[in-house]
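quick one before i forget lol
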Amino acid sequence: MTKFINFKITSLILLCIFFALPSFGQSISSGLPALNITDQGNGETTYSLSLQILALMTALTVLPSLVLGMTSFTRIIIVLSILRQAMGTQQTPPNQVLIAIALFLSFFIMSPTLTKIYDESITPFMEEEMTAEAAIINGSSQIKEFMVKNTRKNDLSMFSDMSGTGNYESASDVPFSVILPAFITSELKTAFQIGFLLFLPFLVIDMVIASILMSLGMMMLSPMLVSLPFKLLLFVLVDGWAMTVGSLASTFVSV
């Protein structure tokens, strides 16, 4: 209770100091930064610098969610996590390494789509050949096309029926409110299917090692401890990392 009172008193003092500062008083008298939209009269709309900075900062805050939900990152990180658990290596590779692998592999998979967005949306906008609205619409259509191609039809139909929007003529007609949950649901299903297939050979090794230890009467010895070197040896002999990464990359359909 005393800490809370001290915190309130400190906050009140800081507030009084800020209001006493001349610069703060001048900013209050001059008003907040202008957040306005101006119509040029020729069909073009310009936004104030403060509004552009606000939009940029908002975009940066939602960027991690976009990377997770609109790219191949979700499927890759789930498969790699299941693979690490199947091998029984606890925290090896660590989470930072798995995230780095998933990010770089996602960049490799998404590079055709990102290149197409840059050539058809960003470059014309920077050369003032396309408005910001047209560039955003064109770029979002490319992202939608990638997600639609990698989403199961059943999942897309389920969410479209739930939203009551019906069928769509093209990928660009699918709203983000439908394609985003459908894409993530499809990615989760695919990731767990791949993880199940990766888990099977390691499960067989664990069962064989446990049966051998039981037959030898070594019930106090952990089967996981004995099977770990054999699982690592099998994974290295078959070049498991290259097979896993290559198989994951081949499961995606690029634009």
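fyi Residues 1-10, 12-34 have pLDDT under 50 and may be disordered.
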